[in-house]
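Structure ticket #2291
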Amino acid sequence: MSGTKVKYQDFDIRVAKSDDIGAVSDLDATITGIAKPDYWAGMFERYGTRDKRYFLIAEDTRNAVIGFIIGEVRAWEFGSPPSGWIFALGVDPANRLNKVGSSMFAAICDRLAADGVDQVRTMLARADELNMTFFRSQGMMGGPFIQLEMPLGSKRTQP
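Resolution: structure written out below.
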C-alpha cells in the first residue's frame, strides 16, 4: 500500500508505521480505558503490512496521532460478494468535531473502492451510540446480515 500522505487543514492521514503503534495503543486506552499494547502490535502485523488491508492514522501538525481506522477487503463469507469491512476506529476526544473521523472514513473507503469493492460494512455494539451515530452520519445503515453468538466453555448450554 502506498505511503501517500493526504493533507487536511489541521491534520494529515497516512498509512500507519510500526513506530505509531505505541501512540495508537495510548489513544485507544484513552478512549476505552483499557490498555492493550500487544493487541495493537498484532493488529499492525495483520493489517498494516499486507495488501487489501488498511491501517491508517491521522496526525496533527505536531505529528501526534489523533486518530486511526482499520479495515480490509473480505470476500464470500456466507455468500457475501467482496466488500470492505471497517472494524476499528478511534479519534482523540479533543478532535472529534474536526472532521478527523469523517476524513479517515473517506480515505479508507477510497482505498477499498480502488480494490474493486462497491460496499463497505462494519459491526457495532447496540449500545455504542457514539460510533452508531458517526457511521450513520457517513451514510451507513442496517444491512442484510444478522450477527449471532453464543457463550463457550462452562457457560455454554448444550442443544
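Closing remark: The beta strands are 6-7, 11-15, 53-60, 65-74, 83-91, 120-121.
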